[in-house]
Specification:
The protein is globular, with a radius of gyration of 14 Å. Strand 3 and strand 4 form a beta hairpin. The protein is built from three helices and four strands. By secondary structure, the protein is an alpha+beta fold. The longest helix has 27 residues.
Amino acid sequence: MLEFSQFEAGYIISQKDLEQAVGYRQRDQPEAFDYFLADVYGLVLQALEECLPHLKVYPALNFHGLIILDPTQMTLEETKLYHGRRDRLLRKQAEQDIRRSEL
């Protein structure tokens, strides 16, 4: 599920792998897929913080997946782009947490 991408210059969890794991395609259920992606993001974030704290996980810019990068190797522009995507995903994660707490 984790593979190195020279194009992205980091390790990726591809959209295809995520779709196989969840059982449907992103384009068929985009909102549900975003919630699933937010859950996976949280799990990967926790694992990285424990094992490899110098690396960070971000939502990919060019596909509906995740990318693991070394933030010290990113330009300021890249950092802003990835942080914008991350913030959107964190909002989805917060919405998901609120829904779960209401159950």
